[in-house]
Specification:
The structure holds two protein chains of two kinds. By secondary structure, chain A is an alpha+beta fold. Chain A folds into three domains: 6-53, Uridine Diphospho-n-acetylenolpyruvylglucosamine Reductase, domain 2; 58-173, Uridine Diphospho-n-acetylenolpyruvylglucosamine Reductase, domain 3, CATH 3.30.465; 179-287, CO dehydrogenase flavoprotein, C-terminal domain (Enolase-like, domain 1, 2-Layer Sandwich), CATH 3.30.390. Chain A has eleven helices and 15 strands. Chain A has helices at 13-22, 36-41, 78-83, 85-90, 92-100, 104-107, 112-117, 124-131, 228-234, 241-254, 266-288, and strands spanning 6-8, 27-30, 50-53, 63-66, 69-73, 135-139, 144-148, 153-155, 158-159, 166-173, 179-186, 197-206, 209-218, 225-226, 237-238. Chain A has a five-stranded antiparallel β-sheet with strand order 4-5-10-6-7. In chain A, strands 11, 12, 13, 14 and 15 form a five-stranded antiparallel β-sheet that branches. In chain A, helix 5 (92-100) runs antiparallel to helix 8 and helix 9 packs antiparallel against helix 10. In chain B, 28% of the residues lie in helices and 24% in strands. Chain B is built from 23 helices and 36 strands. In chain B, the strands form nine sheets. In chain B, strands 8-12-6-19-16-17-18 form a seven-stranded mixed β-sheet. In chain B, helix 2 (87-94) packs across helix 5 (140-156), helix 14 runs parallel beside helix 15 (524-542) and helix 15 (524-542) packs parallel to helix 22 (894-906). The radius of gyration of chain B is 28 Å and the shape is globular. The chains are: A alpha+beta, B alpha+beta. At the A-B interface, strand 1, helix 2, helix 6 and helix 11 of A face strand 4, helix 3, helix 8 and helix 23 of B. The structure holds flavin-adenine dinucleotide and FE2/S2 (inorganic) cluster (2 copies). Flavin-adenine dinucleotide is lined by residues 28-36, 54, 74, 100-102, 106, 110-111, 113-115, 117-118, 123-125, 161, 166-167, 193 of chain A.
Chain lengths: 294, 934
C-alpha cells in the first residue's frame, strides 16, 4: 500500500551506488520524482521497496565547463539548467527545452537524469541532448563509463540502464564559432500533456553553408533518435529554402511517425514537422552568426 | 535506514519520525496541521499544493517528505508577519482575486517565490511563473494585476492603489460599490477550512469500490478479503442500506450501491463501501473486493440509445424526456424564407474540474442524529437524500455546509454524502469520504454531450422567418438534472432572437456514460454554440454584417420568445451588442467594413488574426412552473451587528458578499457589521438550490425583505418606546435617529430583547410565478443577456489557435458588487475559453479516458486573452435593486465567438467542440491543394 518502505538519503555517489546495489527488494533511484512518484502513485510501476534520493549528491549537481566540455550533473534541477548562462551559451536547444518542461514548480525539482532515464521517445530534454551530441557517464559500483546518449534507450519507457546503474553526468561539446542549436515543439491544447512533436537541431555554419548538422525529432520511433539520413543530405550544402525542402523530404521518409490516440495522428505530425524544421533551422542558422560571448 | 526528518517550517524547526511513502503535502497537512496546503489533484498538475522550499516554489504533493530533511519550507501560513498580511495577500483581497479560494494559497506561494527572485516582474514573467498554478474560478487577469500591484508596493513601500473597477451606474450606500468578500482574509492566509481540512476524534476513512465497467449485471461481490484486512472497520453493500436504495435530485434512479443481479450503468457506479482506520487501508480493502459481472453491450451515445434495438437501461426505457417547443408554423416560416441553411453540431461532455475534489464527513451524534460536513450546492436536498437512505425523518440529519472550492453545478448531486453517512451509522464513528481527482472525474455528473441540428430560414434583409432545431442530449447513466438542462438547451436553441416560427425537439437519452447534469450554462452553452455559428453563416450567406444581422433580430422589450413569453422589461441585448461593437472598433482601430476581415501579421503572414461575434441569453431562476422560493432570516444583536442566515450555497461565486451588502444597505450600516451564515440545515432557512443563476435574485430578495421586515419591527418598537411616529425614524450610519435623538442599533436590539421581543425577522420569498413549457406565458421571471467578441490568432502552420482578446458585455440588471462581478466575468470567460479550447472529456465505449487532470486540461494563465468587461444594467423591477443572474450568462457566447473568429481568420467552420488543431490544419491543406475552380 505504501509507495515505498525505505528511503535513503546518501550524501555521496558511492553511498548511493551501495544503497542501490545492496538494499533488499526492488530499489530505484529517485531524482525529482516528477515521473516516478506519479508512476508509483498511479500504479504504473510495481511497488518498490526502497528509494535512493539522488538530490543530495554533490557529484550529480555539477554544472560547469571542464576542458572542452560542458558538464551537467544528472540531478541538476531543470530550472537551473533553463536559467544557466553557461547552458545558454553552449546549448541553446537545451535551455529552450528545459524552459518548456512543466511549470516552475515541476522544473525546480525535475532533472535531466530522470528525463533521460524515463526513456520516452519525445521527452523534451532528451531530444535536445540528442541533437547536441551529448555523451553520458553511467556509474555503478564497479566503474564509471562514458557512452553516447542514444545507447541508453531500448524502447518507449525502457532504458538500457541496469539495476544499480546511475547516470551521473551529461557531457556536451562546447559551442564553437559558427555553431548553434535550437529547440521547437508543438503541443495540443487538449489531452495528454506530452508534446505532439518536438525537434532539436544543432548546426555548424561556414559562410552560407551548413558544414555540419545534428537533428533529433520525437516521437519519430520507439526511442529518441537522430535523423541521420536527413543530416547527411544537409551536410555541406548551402542553406536556402530548397535545402530545407529536401531535408523535409528525407525527414518524412526517415521518421516513423505514428498515431498516438488522443494526442496526435501520424498525418498531423507529418504536416507540422515541416514548420518545426523550418523554424528550428532558421533559428539555429541565425544564431550561428551571432558573436560568441566569451 | 529510514532516519528521522528534521525540517524548518515557517521558521520553526521540527524533528519528526519518517513515515515511509509519505509526501511532503501529507506531512504538512496531517502532522503539522498546515491545511493551507491544498490538494487539488495529487498529480503535479494544479499547483494548489505549492510551498516554497529553500526559496523555490515546489509542488508538495509529489515531494517525498523524507527529502525535506534539512530544508527550510514556507507555507501560506508562514507569510503573514507580525506587521500584518503580506502585500501579496493584501493585493489578492483588495483586487478581488479571491473567489472560492481553493487555489489561492498555491497562487500566492508561487507568486511569492517569483518575487523573491524577480522583484519587478513583467506580466509575461508572471504568466511564465504561474503557468501551472490553476484557478478554475478563472480570475487570472485579476491575479496578474494583484501580483503586479503587490510587487510595486514591495519595491516602493507605497500602499496598494485601489483597483480600477467602475461602480454600478447607480450606486447606493453599499449596493453597487466594490466590496471585499467576508472570507477573503481567511482564504489568503490559509486559515480557511474546507471539508478535507476537518478532523474529528476517532474519525475513519472511507473508500468506494466502483464498477469500472460501463454496462453489466453484477453477479458476484465477495467482500470478505476486504473485511479480513486489519484496520478495516466496516464493509457495506447494497443489502446493508436501511432506507431508500436510490437517490436523485428529481428522479430517484441512481442506486446508492448496485445489488447482486442488478444493473451497472456506468463505470462510476458504487458496488461496496469500506471504512477503515486509514485512507490507505480503506483504498486497499476496496481494491481487494472480488467482483464478477456479466458485461452487456455498451450504449455510448444518445442517438444509439434511441434505436429500437438498444437495451433498455432503465425500466422506462432510454428516453428520459422528449422536449418540444412550438411557436407559429415552421413550414410556413421556411416557405417565406429567401435563404435556408441547415447544419448539425456536436459538443462533448465536459467536467467542472472545480479545484476542490468532493469530500464528505458524516459524524454520528450521541443523541442519535447525524451531521454531514460537506460542500454542497443544495444542502436541503442532501439532507432529504441522506435521511431517505438511512430511513430516518429528515430532521435527524443536519447538513453543515462547508467552504467550497468551486462547484459550477457539479456539486448539486449526491457524491459521498450518503456513503459516508451509511458507514458512520454502521460504525458509530465519524467517517470521511474524500474523492481523489480521478474519482471526481469518473463519478460526478458532467456537462451534457449534445448533437444539435439547426435549420434556419431568413429573408434577404436578414429577418429570421423560422428556426427548427433537433437536439440529442446524453444524460448518461442517471437522470440527475438532465431533463431540466436539456429543456433549457431546447428553449434557448433559437438564440436570443425574435423568430416568428420555431420548432424544437430534444431527446434527452440515457446511455452508459457518466451521468450528465448541471454545469454553468445549463445546456444553453451548447445550443448557443450551434445557433450562433449558424447566425454567422447566415450573415455571410446574405452578405450582411454579423453584428447587423443580430441587431435586426435581437430580442427587445415587447418581443415574444420561442416559448410565447412577452418580454415586458429588462432586455439589454441591443445595448450589449452595440457596446461590444463600439469597443471592437475602438480597440482594434479597424474600419467598420474591415472589422471581421482576416489579418495576417505583416511580420509573420502564417499567423492570421480575426474577430468573431456572438450573443446569448439565459434565464434567471428555475422557471418552467417550478415554485422558486428562498428563505432568509436576519437578526440584530446587542453589539449592533447583524446576521443573515440562509441555506443557499457559497461556492466561491460571492453570494455571501451580496447578502451582506443587501442587509447592510437596508440598515445603513457598514458591510463589515453584517455576518452571513449559509448552508446549515439546522441553523439556516432553506434557500433552495444554488443553480440557474438564481441566488442573487431569489435569496437576495429573501434577505432584502427579511432585512426590511426586521427594520420595520425595530422601527415600530422604537416608535412605541419613544412615542414617535414611525415615519420620523431614520437609519443613518449604524444609528437609528428617532426624532433627532440617536440610538445605536445595539441599544435598540438590547431594548427589544429586554422587553421580550426577539430582533429577528424571517422571510420566505417567492419569485414571480412561471408557467411550464408549452403553456405560453412567462416561462421565466427574468433573463440575462450578453454579447461577446473574441479576437483569435490562428497559426496556419500548426493549426493552433490563441485567443487574444475577449470583449464581454453582460446585462445583469444591476451590478450589486462590481468587484465580485468582475470575478464572475473573468471566470465565465475563462471557463468558456476552456470549454472551447482545452477541455475535452473523452469517453470511449463508456470508459473514461480523461481520468486525470493531466488529460482533462483546464485553462491556465498562459491561455488567457485580455478580457474587456462591459457591464450593462437594465434593471428588472422585481429583482433586488434591479439585479438578475450573472453566474452563467458570461460563458454562453464564448464558444461561438471563438469559433466564428476562427472562421473569419481562415474560413474553417467548426461544427464541434473543442477546437481541433488537426482538423484546422487538414482543412488548410485541402484548401491549398484545391485549385480555384474558376
Ligand atoms: C506537470 C508535469 C509536466 C511535465 N511536462 C513535461 C514536458 O513538457 N516535457 C517533458 O519532457 N517532460 C515533462 N514532464 C516530465 C518531466 O518532469 C520528467 O521527465 C522529468 O524530467 C524527470 O526527472 P525527475 O528528476 O523528476 O525523474 P524521476 O521521476 O525522479 O525519475 C524518473 C525515472 O528515472 C530514474 N532516474 C532518475 N534519475 C536517474 C539517474 N540519475 N540515473 C538513473 N536513473 C535515474 C528513476 O529511477 C525513474 O525511473 C512533466 C511532468 C509533470 C509532472
Ligand atoms: S495537488 Fe499538487 S499539484 Fe495539484
Ligand atoms: S479562486 Fe482559484 S480556483 Fe477558486
Amino acid at each position: 500500500m505504501r509507495l515505498w518502505q525505505e528511503y535513503y538519503r546518501p550524501a555521496t555517489l558511492t553511498e548511493a551506488l551501495q544503497a542501490l546495489a545492496y538494499a533488499p527488494g526492488l530499489v530505484l533511484p529517485i531524482a525529482g520524482g516528477t515521473d516516478l512518484m506519479l508512476d508509483l502513485e498511479q500504479g504504473r510501476h510495481p511497488p518498490v521497496h526502497a528509494l535512493v534520493d539522488l538530490t543530495f549528491l554533490p557529484e550529480l549537481k555539477r554544472l560547469e565547463v571542464q576542458g572542452d566540455e560542458l558538464l551537467i550533473g544528472a540531478a541538476v534541477p531543470l530550472s537551473q539548467i533553463a536559467t544557466s548562462p553557461l547552458v545558454a551559451e553552449h546549448a541553446q536547444a537545451l535551455t529552450e527545452a528545459c524552459a518548456l518542461i512543466g511549470g516552475p514548480q515541476v522544473r525546480n525539482v525535475a532533472t535531466l537524469g530522470g528525463n533521460v532515464a524515463h526513456a520516452l521517445p519525445a521527452a523534451d530534454g532528451t531530444i535536445a541532448l540528442t541533437a547536441l551530441g551529448a555523451q553520458v557517464t553511467v556509474a555503478d559500483l564497479e566503474c564509471a563509463r562514458r557512452v553516447p546518449l542514444e545507447s541508453l534507450f531500448l524502447g518507449p519507457g525502457k532504458s538500457a540502464l541496469r539495476p544499480g546503474q546511475l547516470i551521473t553526468t551529461f557531457h556536451l561539446p562546447l559551442r564553437r564559432r559558427g555553431q548553434a542549436s535550437a529547440f521547437r515543439r508543438v503541443m495540443r491544447l487538449q489531452g495528454i500533456a506530452l508534446p505532439i512533436l518536438n525537434l532539436a537541431i544543432w548546426l555548424a555554419r561556414e559562410g552560407e553553408r551548413i558544414a555540419d548538422l545534428r537533428l533529433a525529432v520525437g516521437p519519430s520511433g520507439p526511442t529518441p533518435r537522430r535523423m541521420t539520413a536527413t543530416e547527411a543530405i544537409v551536410r555541406g550544402q548551402t542553406m536556402d529554402d530548397s535545402l530545407i525542402e529536401q531535408a523535409l523530404h528525407t525527414l518524412l521518409e526517415e521518421a516513423h511517425f505514428r498515431t498516438s490516440p488522443h494526442r496526435a495522428s501520424a498525418e498531423y505530425r507529418r504536416q507540422v514537422v515541416g514548420a518545426l524544421l523550418r523554424e528550428g533551422m532558421q533559428a539555429a542558422w541565425d544564431r550561428a552568426c551571432e558573436p560568441q560571448r566569451h | 535506514m529510514t532516519s528521522p526528518i528534521t525540517l524548518t517550517v515557517n521558521g520553526k524547526e521540527y524533528t519528526l519520525e519518517a513515515i515511509p511513502g509519505e509526501t511532503l503535502a501529507t506531512l504538512l497537512r496531517e502532522r503539522l496541521n498546515l491545511t493551507g496546503v491544498k490538494i487539488g489533484c495529487g498529480e503535479a498538475e494544479c499547483g494548489a499544493c505549492t510551498v516554497v522550499i529553500d526559496g523555490q516554489a515546489v509542488v508538495s504533493c509529489i515531494y517525498p517528505a523524507e527529502r525535506a530533511h534539512g530544508k527550510h519550507i514556507t507555507t501560506i501560513e508562514g507569510l503573514q508577519s507580525e506587521a500584518g498580511l503580506h502585500p501579496l495577500q493584501e493585493a489578492f483581497i483588495k483586487y478581488g482575486a479571491v473567489q472560492c479560494g481553493f487555489c489561492i494559497p498555491g497562487q500566492i506561494m508561487t507568486a511569492y517565490a517569483l518575487l523573491q527572485h524577480n522583484p519587478d516582474p513583467s506580466p509575461a514573467d508572471i504568466r511564465f511563473a504561474l503557468k501551472d498554478t490553476l484557478c478554475r474560478c478563472g480570475g487570472y487577469p485579476t491575479i496578474e494585476r494583484a501580483i503586479l500591484a503587490a510587487a510595486r508596493a514591495l519595491r516602493t513601500g507605497e500602499p496598494l492603489p485601489d483597483p480600477e473597477i467602475p461602480e454600478s451606474a447607480e450606486p447606493r450606500q453599499v449596493v453597487g460599490r466594490n466590496i471585499i468578500r467576508p472570507d477573503a482574509v481567511e482564504k489568503v492566509t490559509g486559515r480557511a477550512l474546507y471539508t478535507d481540512d476537518l478532523k474529528f476524534p476517532g474519525m475513519l476513512h472511507a473508500a468506494v469500490r466502483r464498477a469500472g465497467v460501463p454496462h453489466a449485471i453484477l453477479r458476484v461481490l465477495d467482500v470478505e478479503p476486504a473485511r479480513a484486512l486489519p484496520g478495516v472497520v466496516a464493509v457495506l453493500t447494497a443489502a446493508d442500506i436501511p432506507g431508500e436504495k436510490n437517490h436523485g435530485l428529481v428522479i430517484h434512479d441512481w442506486p446508492i450501491m448496485i445489488g447482486i443481479g442488478e444493473r451497472i450503468r456506468y463505470v462510476g457506479d458504487a458496488l461496496a463501501i469500506v471504512a477503515a482506520e486509514s485512507r490507505e487501508i480503506a483504498l486497499e480493502a476496496a481494491r481487494r473486493i472480488r467482483v464478477e459481472v456479466e458485461e452487456r453491450p455498451v450504449i455510448s451515445d444518445p442517438v444509439q440509445a434511441r434505436r429500437p434495438d438498444a437495451e433498455a437501461l432503465h425500466p422506462g426505457g432510454n428516453l428520459l424526456k422528449h422536449i418540444q417547443v412550438r411557436k407559429g408554423k415552421v413550414a410556413q416560416g421556411f416557405a417565406e424564407a429567401d435563404v435556408i441553411l441547415e447544419h448539425t453540431f456536436h459538443t462533448p461532455m465536459m467536467d467542472h474540474a472545480f479545484l476542490e475534489p468532493e469530500c464528505s464527513i458524516a459524524v454520528p451524534l450521541p443523541d442519535g442524529r447525524m451531521e454531514i460536513y460537506v460542500g454542497s450546492q443544495i444542502p436541503y436536498a442532501d439532507r432529504a437524500q441522506v435521511a431517505a437512505a438511512l430511513g430516518w425523518p429528515e430532521e435527524r440529519v443536519r447538513i453543515v455546509g462547508q467552504l467550497m472550492g468551486g462547484g459550477f453545478g457539479g456539486k448539486e448531486d449526491i457524491a459521498g454524502q450518503i456513503h459516508a453517512a451509511l458507514l458512520a451509522n454502521a460504525t458509530g464513528r465519524p467517517v470521511k469520504l474524500l474523492f481523489d481527482r480521478r474519482e471526481s472525474l469518473l463519478v460526478h455528473p458532467k456537462r451534457h454531450a449534445t448533437q444539435i441540428r439547426v435549420k434556419i430560414g431568413a429573408k434577404r434583409d436578414g429577418r429570421l422567418t423560422a428556426v427548427e432545431t433537433e437536439l440529442f442530449g446524453d444524460t448518461g447513466a442517471y437522470a440527475s438534472l438532465g431533463e431540466k438542462v436539456m429543456t433549457r438547451a431546447t428553449t434557448h436553441s433559437a438564440g436570443p432572437y425574435e423568430v416568428p416560427h420555431v420548432s424544437a425537439d430534444c431527446y434527452a437519452m440515457y446511455t452508459n456514460n457518466p451521468p450528465a447534469g448541471a454545469y454553468r450554462g445549463f445546456g444553453v452553452l451548447q445550443s448557443a454554440f450551434a445557433i450562433e455559428s449558424m447566425m454567422d453563416w447566415l450573415a455571410e450567406t446574405l452578405g450582411l454584417d454579423p453584428i447587423e444581422l443580430r441587431r435586426r433580430n435581437a430580442l427587445r422589450v415587447g418581443s415574444v420568445t420561442n416559448t410565447g413569453q412577452v418580454l415586458r422589461e429588462s432586455v439589454g441585448l441591443l445595448e450589449c451588442i452595440e457596446r461590444v461593437e463600439q469597443e471592437m472598433l475602438r480597440l482594434s482601430g479597424l474600419e467598420r467594413e474591415r472589422l471581421f476581415a482576416p489579418r495576417p501579421l505583416p511580420e509573420a503572414p502564417h499567423r492570421v488574426r480575426a474577430w468573431g461575434f456572438a450573443a446569448g441569453y439565459k434565464n434567471t431562476g428555475l422557471g418552467g412552473g417550478a415554485p422558486d422560493k428562498a428563505g432568509a432570516e436576519v437578526q440584530l444583536y446587542a453589539d449592533g451587528s447583524l446576521m443573515v442566515r440562509t441555506s443557499s450555497a457559497e461556492l466561491g461565486q460571492g453570494l455571501v458578499t451580496v447578502l451582506r451588502m443587501i442587509v447592510a444597505e437596508e440598515f445603513s450600516v457598514p458591510p463589515e457589521r453584517v455576518r452571513v451564515l449559509v448552508m446549515d440545515t439546522d441553523l439556516t432557512p432553506d434557500g433552495g438550490p444554488t443553480t440557474a443563476s438564481r441566488q442573487t435574485y431569489v435569496t437576495g430578495n429573501a434577505a432584502r425583505l427579511a432585512a426590511q421586515s426586521l427594520r420595520q419591527a425595530v422601527t415600530s418598537f422604537l416608535a412605541e418606546k419613544y412615542d414617535c411616529p414611525p415615519e420620523r425614524i431614520r437609519y443613518v450610519e449604524g444609528l437609528a435617529q428617532v426624532d433627532g435623538q440617536r440610538i445605536s442599533l445595539g441599544e435598540a436590539a438590547a431594548a427589544m430583547q429586554a422587553s421580550g421581543v426577539e430582533p429577528l425577522a424571517r422571510y420566505e420569498y417567492r419569485a414571480p410565478e412561471t408557467r411550464p413549457l408549452g403553456q405560453g406565458g412567462d416561462m421565466h421571471f427574468a433573463f440575462s443577456f450578453a454579447a461577446q467578441a473574441a479576437e483569435v490568432e490562428v497559426d496556419t502552420r500548426t493549426g493552433m489557435v490563441r485567443v487574444l482578446r475577449v470583449i464581454s458585455a453582460n446585462d445583469v440588471g444591476r451590478a450589486i458588487n462590481p468587484l465580485g462581478l468582475r470575478g464572475q466575468v473573468e471566470g465565465g470567460i475563462t471557463m468558456g475559453l476552456g470549454n472551447t479550447l482545452t477541455e475535452h472529456f473523452i469517453v470511449e465505449n463508456g470508459r473514461v479516458i480523461t481520468d486525470r487532470l493531466a488529460r482533462y486540461r483546464i485553462p491556465s494563465i498562459v491561455h488567457m486573452p485580455e478580457v474587456i468587461p462591459i457591464i450593462v444594467e437594465h434593471p428588472t423591477a422585481e429583482g433586488p435593486y434591479g439585479a438578475k443572474g450573472v453566474g452563467e450568462i458570461v460563458s454562453i457566447p464564448t464558444p461561438a465567438a471563438i469559433a466564428n473568429a476562427i472562421y473569419h481568420a481562415i474560413g474553417f467552420r467548426m461544427d464541434s467542440l473543442p477546437v481541433d488543431q488537426e482538423a484546422i490544419l487538414a482543412f488548410l491543406k485541402r484548401q491549398k491543394e484545391c485549385l480555384p475552380s474558376r
